Amino acid sequence: MENDSRMAVQLQKIIYDTIPLGKASQLQVAELNANSIRIEAPVPGINSNIHNTAFAGSIYSACALTAWGLVHNRLLQEEIKAEVVIAQAEIKYEKPILKNIIAHAHLEETGFLEFKNKLLKKGKARLSVTVKASEDDTIQAQLDANIAVLLAS
């Protein structure tokens, strides 16, 4: 598999080239490997609301792109051509985010391998991904996403 910084740069380019909101909100793929991801976005001026805290839509978008990016990247690394979409997601906001949205997620290897086997066997599969948005090491929001994947024809 590719080294981590190269994967992060590649995913950052995909997001900026294909998802205008990613570029507009200045999302940065801060860390990425086969099983985990961290995406960050600044709050002041770009992703803030009238209370000068993170806009809920910006938190949701950062978390959604984190879930999508983690699965998309892993499939790229596995050389599996597929369409990846968020079929369903629900977010719970706990506390305001003031400075930076830091969204992170992790794939359990066993769960991913079960998902991959089903995808390769049936041509489609779903995977649950939990993304936590934090600030100062405190979880401020959590997004539970159901990712639907369809093998490319």
Secondary structure blueprint with pairings:
Blueprint: H1 4-18, H2 20-24, E1 28-32, E2 36-42, H3 56-77, E3 82-93, E4 100-106, H4 109-122, E5 124-135, E6 138-151
Antiparallel strand pairs: 1-2, 2-4, 3-6, 4-5, 5-6
Commentary on this structure:
There is one protein chain. By secondary structure, this protein is α+β, with helices and mostly antiparallel strands. The protein has one domain: Hotdog Thioesterase (Thiol Ester Dehydrase, Chain A). It is built from four helices and six strands; from the N terminus they run ααββαββαββ. A six-stranded antiparallel beta sheet has the order 1-2-4-5-6-3. The radius of gyration is 15 Å and the shape is globular. The mean pLDDT is 95.
- Estimated helix fraction: 25-40%
Distance between the termini: 24 Å
Order of helices and strands: HHEEHEEHEE
Side by side, the strands of the main sheet go: 1-2-4-5-6-3
Count of individual domains: 1
Mean pLDDT: 95
